[in-house]
C-alpha cells in the first residue's frame, strides 16, 4: 500500500510509514502507538527527552528490534516480513563512529563495500568517490585511528552510504564535534537530502533540527505529541515577541504603559482599539505599577497580563501581532515620550521553547 503525505505543498510518497507502533520492555512501555510519515527526499528530525522512545523507534525502523504491535514500512519493505531485503536499502550511522581504527580510511570503505556484496572493483571505486566527497582523500591511506573526531564521523557517514541507500538513519550525528565540524557535516547532510536521499535523524541539538529538518516529530513518553515543519511548530507556541531593555530603571513602569497604549488592542491604543476588559485583558497603568512594587535589583521575572517584566534587568517582553509594524510603532512612541532604551528588538519562538512547551523536559 502506498502512503502519501504532503511535502512543500506537494503530495509525495511516504518512504517511511509507521502506524500504531508499540514496544514494551517488561512493565515499561517504550512506544505507545507511534504514527509517523516521512516524505521521500525530506529530512525528519526526531526529538524527545531521555526515555521518550527515540532510539527504540529507530531500532525498529532499521530492523534491529521487532515491534510488539503496529506496523512500519521503509523504502517499500515491511520492517518485520521484509527485514532482510530492507537492510540493503537503508544506511545507519550510530551515535559513535563504527570504524576499524587499524584500517585506513580507504580500507574501511572498501571493507564495508565488500560486506554489502559489492564486487571488489566497484567497492574500490565507490570508496574513492566517497573519500573525495567527504573531504578525506588526503587522509585516505592513513589509519582511521589517527583521524580527528570530525574525520571519523565523516568516515562513518561515508560507510553508511557505500551502497547509495535511498533512506539514511542518523543517531545524533554531530555529538562531540566542534562547531566547524558540525557545520561541515550539516552541509553534507543537506546535500544528500537535496539529491533525493530521505534522512531521519535523532539529535540533542535543537538548532541542528531547526537547520536541517523539513519536518520534526516530537516524542514524549512513547507517543508523538506533535509533528510538522519547524515553522509550524513554532507557531503553536505563539508569534513574535517584542523585547525592550530600558536605560534607566525608573523608565520601566512608564515605558510599559507607553507600550500598552501603543500596541493594537491595548487600552489607549487609538481608534479601533479594544476596550481591554474581561478575562486576560491588558492590565491598567495601576496594575502595571503594582507589578513593580517592591522590586529591586535582582527581582525575578513577573507577569502583567501577557507582558513579562524583569525589573532587575530593566527589560520587558510582550507578544506582538504584526512584528515589524509593532516594533516601529513602539520605537516611535518611546522616543516621543522621551524614554531612552538600550535594546529593542523582535524575537521569534525558538525550537527550544517548542520542545519545553510540548514535553516540559530538556532535549536529549
Automatic annotation (TrEMBL):
<dbReference type="InterPro" id="IPR003593">
    <property type="entry name" value="AAA+_ATPase"/>
</dbReference>
<keyword id="KW-0067">ATP-binding</keyword>
<dbReference type="InterPro" id="IPR027417">
    <property type="entry name" value="P-loop_NTPase"/>
</dbReference>
<keyword id="KW-0046">Antibiotic resistance</keyword>
<dbReference type="InterPro" id="IPR003439">
    <property type="entry name" value="ABC_transporter-like_ATP-bd"/>
</dbReference>
<dbReference type="GO" id="GO:0005886">
    <property type="term" value="C:plasma membrane"/>
</dbReference>
<feature type="region of interest" description="Disordered">
    <location>
        <begin position="259"/>
        <end position="289"/>
    </location>
</feature>
<feature type="domain" description="ABC transporter">
    <location>
        <begin position="16"/>
        <end position="246"/>
    </location>
</feature>
<feature type="compositionally biased region" description="Low complexity">
    <location>
        <begin position="280"/>
        <end position="289"/>
    </location>
</feature>
<dbReference type="InterPro" id="IPR017871">
    <property type="entry name" value="ABC_transporter-like_CS"/>
</dbReference>
<dbReference type="GO" id="GO:0005524">
    <property type="term" value="F:ATP binding"/>
</dbReference>
<comment type="similarity">
    <text>Belongs to the ABC transporter superfamily. Drug exporter-1 (DrugE1) (TC 3.A.1.105) family.</text>
</comment>
<dbReference type="InterPro" id="IPR050763">
    <property type="entry name" value="ABC_transporter_ATP-binding"/>
</dbReference>
<keyword id="KW-1278">Translocase</keyword>
<keyword id="KW-1003">Cell membrane</keyword>
<feature type="compositionally biased region" description="Gly residues">
    <location>
        <begin position="267"/>
        <end position="279"/>
    </location>
</feature>
<dbReference type="GO" id="GO:1900753">
    <property type="term" value="P:doxorubicin transport"/>
</dbReference>
<keyword id="KW-0813">Transport</keyword>
<dbReference type="GO" id="GO:0016887">
    <property type="term" value="F:ATP hydrolysis activity"/>
</dbReference>
<keyword id="KW-0547">Nucleotide-binding</keyword>
<dbReference type="GO" id="GO:0046677">
    <property type="term" value="P:response to antibiotic"/>
</dbReference>
<dbReference type="GO" id="GO:0043215">
    <property type="term" value="P:daunorubicin transport"/>
</dbReference>
<dbReference type="InterPro" id="IPR005894">
    <property type="entry name" value="DrrA"/>
</dbReference>
<protein>
    <submittedName>
        <fullName>ATP-binding cassette domain-containing protein</fullName>
    </submittedName>
</protein>
<keyword id="KW-0472">Membrane</keyword>
<dbReference type="Pfam" id="PF00005">
    <property type="entry name" value="ABC_tran"/>
</dbReference>
Amino acid at each position: 500500500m502506498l502512503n502519501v503525505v504532503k511535502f512543500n505543498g506537494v503530495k509525495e510518497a511516504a518512504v517511511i510509514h509507521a502506524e500504531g507502533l508499540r514496544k514494551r520492555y517488561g512493565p515499561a512501555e517504550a512506544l505507545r502507538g507511534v504514527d509517523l510519515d516521512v516524505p521521500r527526499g525530506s529530512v525528519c528530525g526526531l526529538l524527545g527527552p531521555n526515555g521518550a522512545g527515540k532510539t527504540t523507534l529507530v531500532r525498529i525502523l532499521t530492523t534491529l528490534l521487532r515491534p510488539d504491535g503496529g506496523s512500519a514500512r521503509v523504502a517499500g519493505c515491511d520492517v518485520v516480513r521484509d527485514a532482510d531485503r530492507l537492510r540493503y536499502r537503508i544506511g545507519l550511522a550510530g551515535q559513535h563512529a563504527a570504524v576499524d581504527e587499524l584500517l585506513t580510511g580507504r580500507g574501511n570503505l572498501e571493507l564495508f563495500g565488500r560486506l554489502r556484496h559489492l564486487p571488489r572493483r566497484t567497492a574500490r571505486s565507490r570508496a574513492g568517490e566517497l573519500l573525495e566527497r567527504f573531504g578525506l582523500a588526503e587522509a585516505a591511506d592513513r589509519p582511521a585511528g589517527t583521524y580527528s573526531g570530525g574525520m571519523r564521523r565523516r568516515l562513518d557517514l561515508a560507510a553508511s552510504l557505500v551502497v547509495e541507500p535511498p533512506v539514511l538513519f542518523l543517531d545524533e550525528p554531530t555529538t562531540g564535534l566542534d562547531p566547524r565540524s558540525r557545520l561541515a557535516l550539516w552541509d553534507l547532510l543537506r546535500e544528500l537530502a537535496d539529491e533525493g536521499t530521505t534522512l531521519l535523524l535523532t539529535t540533542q541539538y535543537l538548532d541542528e533540527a531547526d537547520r536541517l529538518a523539513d519536518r520534526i516529530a516530537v516524542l514524549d513518553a512513547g507517543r508523538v505529541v506533535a509533528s510538522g515543519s519547524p515553522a509550524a511548530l513554532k507557531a503553536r507556541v505563539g508569534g513574535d515577541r517584542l523585547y525592550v531593555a530600558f536605560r534607566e530603571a525608573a523608565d520601566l513602569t512608564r515605558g510599559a504603559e507607553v507600550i500598552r497604549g501603543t500596541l493594537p488592542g491595548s487600552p489607549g491604543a487609538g481608534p479601533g482599539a479594544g476596550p481591554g476588559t474581561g478575562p486576560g485583558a491588558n492590565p491598567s497603568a495601576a496594575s502595571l505599577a503594582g507589578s513593580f512594587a517592591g522590586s529591586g535589583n535582582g527581582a525575578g521575572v513577573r507577569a502583567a497580563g501577557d507582558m513579562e517584566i524583569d525589573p532587575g534587568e530593566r527589560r520587558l517582553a510582550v507578544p506582538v501581532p504584526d512584528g515589524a509594524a509593532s516594533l516601529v510603532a513602539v520605537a516611535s512612541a518611546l522616543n516621543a515620550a522621551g524614554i531612552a532604551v538600550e535594546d529593542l528588538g523582535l524575537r521569534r519562538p525558538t525550537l527550544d521553547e517548542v520542545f519545553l512547551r510540548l514535553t516540559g523536559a530538556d532535549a536529549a
